[in-house]
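Researcher: Sit down with what I've pasted below and flag anything odd:
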Amino acid sequence: MRLNVAIFIFNEVEVLDFAGPFEVFAATDSLNQNTLFNTYTVAEMPGVVFARNGLKVVPTHPFESAPKPDIIVVPGGFGTRPLLARSIIIEWIRQQSRAAQHTVSVCTGSLLLAKAGLLDGLPATTHCSQLDLLRELAPTAVVHTDRRFLDTGQLLTSAGISAGIDVSLHLVARLCGKEIAERTAAHMEYHWTNDGGLTR
């Protein structure tokens, strides 16, 4: 059965933060007869989302009608900062994460996970410029400065922007096997080291 992959988008979301994971999961599905992942975007409300640098994106679903996700991807970007004060967003992330098999953050998406209390006591990372803020928001988390991504089982965090591709390929390998992930990386012509996030 295909897994639902919900990618949260919002105003000022970093483009590659959400587009990279979208490409990984959607391409993996396409390369495997559309049997693995149903990938879609989700926003708080219907209508256009203005991503970073003016890219206009129309989300597939608003919160109220989105299918239940098996995997939720929370990207970053400058738009995460005002969302830290939006309780409806933080609670949605908290509830979706509790119900999902896996939660993945990209870049400063980890700040939203921290605000939701999802990183307490766990190893985590984020964009190199926001490590101190992550420590402030999740004081009991073990913040890593030298990892491209960290996998704690249900929850995965990744460093800045392009690291979202690496963590997504890593999760594909976990769920579907290394060969399928490598085939996706080759199709994308992406140099994936498959080192478990050890290098940044």
Residues 3-187 form a domain with the Rossmann fold fold (CATH 3.40.50.880). The chain has one domain: 3-187. The chain is about 35% helix and 20% strand.
